[in-house]
Amino acid sequence: MTNDDIEIIGKNVKDMYGAFMGKVVGTITDIDGSIQSIGVDCSFQGLQQIQYEQIVVQNDAIIFIPKWRLDSQRLIREKQLTLRRLKALIDIVSENDHMKADAEIIHEKYKSKLVRLDETESEIKAKLEERATELEEESKSAKMLLFDAKVQCKSNEISETTFDTVKSCTNEVIERVSHELAEIKNVKSRIADLELEVQEMIAPSQPNVQESAVSYLETPESQQVVQTILPEAPIVSTPKSSEPIRAETLPIPESPTKSEVSAEFQEPPKQVTPETPKDNDNDWLARM
C-alpha cells in the first residue's frame, strides 16, 4: 500500500456540489501499484466502486466527479481538436495544390474520426437525458417534503424550529440539483454547437456567385434569348344583320277628364247632429 492509499482511506467523499456521499474504506490497485478504483461506503446504497479518474483528492475530503461529465468533456476536447486539424489541413491544401494527394489520406482519417465521435456523442446524449430526468425527480421529491413540512407546521404538528431545519435541508438539495441541471444544459449546448460546426465543415461548399456569373456569360446566345413578344389575341367576328331593327311603339294612354275623376271619388256622407228641442226650455221658464 502506497502513501497515497493511506491518505485516501478513511476520508469523506462528497460530490461536486458539496453533498456527502460516504467514506473511503479501501482501494483496488494494479500490478504496478497504481490505484484503479476506490471503495466507498454509501450507507444504504452499499459499497460502491468508483474509478480513480472520477475523484479529486483534497486535504479535507475527496471530490467525486460524475461519469457523464468526464465523458462529455473528453468528447468536446477530441472534437474540437479534430476540427482544428481539419481546418489546418484545408488551409494547407489551399496554399499548395501539389499536396492535395497526400492530404486526401489524412482528410479521410479525420472524417472517420468524426464518425466515431458522433456515435459516442449519441451515447452521451442519452446519458445526459437520463441524468436530467433523475434530477428532476429529486427536485420534485424535495419540494414535496418541504410542502408537507409546511402543512405540519401550520397544523401545529411540528415546531417552527423543525420546519426551518427541513427548509434548510431541502433548499440545499434543490440548489444542488439546479446547479447540476444547469451544467447539463450547458454541456448539451456546447455539443450542439460542435455538431453544427462539423456539418458546415463536411457539407459541400456552395458554388461561388462569380463562378456562376462567368458560366452564364459563357453560354451560347441562342440559349439566352428570351421571348418578349406575346402572341396577339384572336379576333372573334360577330355576324351583321342585313335588315334594320325596328322598335315597336306603344300607344300612350289618355289622361282622364275632370268629370271622370269626380265620378270615381264620391263625397263622404255629412254628419247628422240631433237638434235639441226648444220646448223644454220654454216650459222651464214658465215654471219659474
Describe the structure.
- By secondary structure, this protein is of the alpha+beta class.
- Among the domains are: 3-65, PRC-barrel domain (SH3 type barrels), CATH 2.30.30.240; 69-204.
- It is 56% helix and 11% strand.
- The protein is built from 8 helices and 6 strands; from the N terminus they run H-E-E-E-E-E-E-H-H-H-H-H-H-H.
- It has a 6-stranded mixed β-sheet, with no helix packed on it.
- A hairpin with a 5-residue loop joins strand 2 (20-29) and strand 3 (35-41).
- Helix 2 (67-95) packs antiparallel against helix 3 (100-154), helix 2 runs parallel beside helix 4 and helix 3 (100-154) packs antiparallel against helix 4 (160-202).
- The N and C termini lie far apart (162 Å).
- Residues 236-288 are annotated as: Disordered.
- This is CdvA-like protein.
- Pfam families: CdvA (PF18822).
- Keywords: Coiled coil.
- It comes from Marine Group I thaumarchaeote.
